[in-house]
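Case study.
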Amino acid sequence: MCWSIPGKIIEINDNIAKIELSGVTKEVGLDLIDDPKVGEYLLIHAGYAIQKVDEKSAKFTTDFLNGKINGKEE
Amino acid sequence: MIKYVDEYRDVDTCLSIAEKIREISTKPLNIMEVCGGHTMSIRKNGIQKLVGDNINLLSGPGCPVCVTAIKDIDKAIALSQIEDVIICSFGDMIYVPGSKTTLAQTKAEGKDIRTVYSVSDALKLAKEEPLKKVVFIGIGFETTAPTIAAAIVQVYRENIDNFSVLSLHKTMPQALGAVLSDESCIIDALICPGHVTTITGTDMYEFIVKDLGISCCVSGFEPVDILRAIYMITEMFENNQPALLNAYERVVKPQGNIKAQDILAEVFKSVDADWRGCGIVPDSGLGIKDKYEKFDADKIFDINVPDSKENSACICGDILRGAKNPNDCTLFKTACTPMNPQGACMVSSEGTCAAWYKYGE
Ligand code: SF4
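After joint prediction, the assembly is written out as follows.
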């Protein structure tokens, strides 16, 4: 039930954002997020955004896994 | 391609991490995946088989539907009998057996019970139906509770007087403390719930590492996330160095989501809560503060239900404490199936029995 998925902000109207979630558009509440901006990725849970997705650490994790664990080159 | 999802499902990466885990693992290691979402992902992706025989993955108390006490389900059913009440609930809850019936059966008998995806759907319904009393059955941990708190602040601000919440919300650290301090507990390490920790931050697990010597690693829900967390845990265990690590850096920050913590503190106070499997755990529930009491269904409606009966053959309680597996239950796959669930762990889409039924061991 704590299932949450990242979606991209495509529009913000007051406290509601339009989010693109795997090809569909959904409206989510922004009451729990500071300073959201169009183009950012948010983690969506039960109709509300609960956190911004940090692009830098997401990239760091995949780079780390590709390089260190997986032994693959970028 | 879904950004931040697909790259964490890459099969080659999963197989490589699993190989590394098997390489470094030399002794038996019992890991509890606290969250029902992790249980589902582990079974769906065959992670138990990938990590080898030394590592035993056990479920924990992190499925909100599963840990809801039967008495609280009876309470929701009693609320649905009140004239002009519309019950709104997250989907799985309506199929969980109470002591005599379910919300789904009560709905079939004509009561107004609706499943919603978000508390904001219930709020919308309250605005559309001003002559009805909309009662939202609030379940969930620190991930979901802030969304309900946000809705309560909104109804307070907008002065909506036909919306209330039966708050059955629970908080994770106290239940984990109860499960892990039990003398019979065999857990060596925890895969900590990624989305609960997104809200709370990582500090709340420190007592588990310091006082109980149990390693904690916060993980996301994709197979690469979980395998990476198991790798990090195995490394700590083999080096005999329990610690608190975060393998879900892209959303979990050490301090958590402060805005969500503030709204939780604004609306809720700590109360004792009844957990299926653990009984009453002090200060592990979220009750609605007096300022918002006119939205508290427990206060508005005077509902008293008798003490409830559990199916004595159902071992959900032991499963939620990581003490047993579904295979230990005599009803599993015989009298208890997803079509005819006898306990909450078979109802919930994140329940351990449902996961084992659907995906096997
Ligand atoms: S199989 Fe059914 S009866 Fe047995 S523990 Fe699971 S939910 Fe309970």
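Observations recorded in class. The longest strand of chain B covers residues 279-288. The first helix of chain B runs from residue 11 to 24. We will return to this complex in the next lecture.
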